[in-house]
């Protein structure tokens, strides 16, 4: 680790921090950022020519907005993302239904799929055990559930089936690249120049 910096919420200029990091020539940049800051860090990194082998920023990278604003420069950028329309047949159906309902707007490749999966789990539990809260909780805790993001199983309150994941913009899609067991594509490294 060559640098660790924080910044205030609502920041309008990250270029001084990014220049300091660029001067240290790191192999990777990891920005734990909200969507507006993800876009700001990406735009300003491009402006100052900061192009490490891996550029990871999250959570904004998982949204169509990121790709739309950053354009072709999004290619190779990584971030938190755990599913896309290739993950399962159900994911493709959800993806297409979302676009149809919202005038072509794509769902994010992070939380929306898991929110829908949560609704699938609840629907399956109610169908199996009815509306008794304890019975629903016990059913959810004791079974594996088929969802659009793949099978989900809990231990306590932890989802044990969906690991932490990394996705990467590749040819217009936010591909899951790690872990390999759930990947929809291989990691491209180094990331292409902005």
Q: How would you write the strand order of the largest sheet?
A: 3-7-8
CATH class of the largest domain, anyone?
Alpha Beta
The beta-strand count equals 8
Strand count, sense and closure of the main sheet? 3 strands, antiparallel
Order of helices and strands: HEHEHEHHHEEEEE
Low-confidence stretches: none
**CATH fold-level name of the largest domain:** Rossmann fold
**Which homologous superfamily in CATH is the superfamily of the largest domain?**
Response regulator
Spatial separation of the terminal alpha carbons: 23 Å
Number of helices: 6
- Going by helix content, strand content and strand pairing, the class is alpha+beta
The chain-level mean pLDDT equals 94
Q: Choose one word for the global shape.
A: elongated
Instruction: Please name the CATH architecture of the largest domain.
Output: 3-Layer(aba) Sandwich
Percent of residues in helices comes to 25-40%
Q: What Rg do the Cα atoms give? A: 19 Å
Instruction: Tell me the domain tally.
Output: 2
Strand content: 15-25%
Give the SSE map:
Elements: H1 15-23, E1 28-32, H2 35-48, E2 54-58, H3 64-70, E3 78-79, H4 89-101, H5 111-129, H6 133-142, E4 144-145, E5 152-155, E6 158-159, E7 166-170, E8 173-178
Parallel strand pairs: 1-2
Antiparallel strand pairs: 3-7, 4-5, 5-6, 7-8
Describe this entry's structure for a reader:
- The chain has 194 residues and is α+β, with helices and mostly antiparallel strands.
- The protein folds into two domains: 15-82 and 164-182, 3-Layer(aba) Sandwich (Rossmann fold), CATH 3.40.50.2300; 89-159, no CATH class.
- The chain has six helices and eight strands, in the order αβαβαβαααβββββ.
- The strands form three sheets. Strands 3-7-8 form a three-stranded antiparallel β-sheet, with no helix packed on it.
- α5 (111-129) packs across α6.
- The longest helix is centred in the middle third of the chain and has 19 residues, at 111-129.
- The radius of gyration is 19 Å and the shape is elongated.
- The model has no long low-confidence stretch (mean pLDDT 94).
């Amino acid at each position: 680790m060559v640098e660790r910096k924080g910044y205030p919420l609502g920041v309008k200029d990250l270029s001084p921090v990014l220049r300091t990091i660029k001067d240290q020539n790191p192999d990777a940049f990891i920005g734990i950022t909200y969507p507006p800051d993800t876009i700001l860090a990406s735009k300003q990194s491009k402006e100052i020519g900061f192009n490490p082998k891996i550029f990871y920023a999250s959570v904004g990278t998982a949204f169509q907005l990121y790709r739309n604003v950053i354009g072709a420069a999004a290619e190779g950028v990584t971030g938190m993302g755990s599913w896309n329309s290739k993950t399962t047949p159900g994911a493709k159906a959800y993806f297409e239904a979302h676009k149809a309902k919202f005038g072509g707007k794509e769902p994010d490749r992070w939380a929306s799929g898991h929110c829908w999966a949560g609704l699938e789990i609840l629907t399956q539990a109610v169908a199996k055990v009815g509306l008794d809260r304890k019975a629903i909780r016990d059913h959810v805790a004791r079974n594996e559930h088929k969802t659009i993001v793949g099978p989900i199983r809990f231990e306590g309150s932890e989802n044990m089936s969906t690991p932490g994941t990394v996705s990467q913009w590749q040819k217009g899609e936010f591909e899951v690249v790690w872990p390999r067991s759930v990947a929809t594509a291989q990691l491209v490294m180094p990331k292409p120049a902005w």
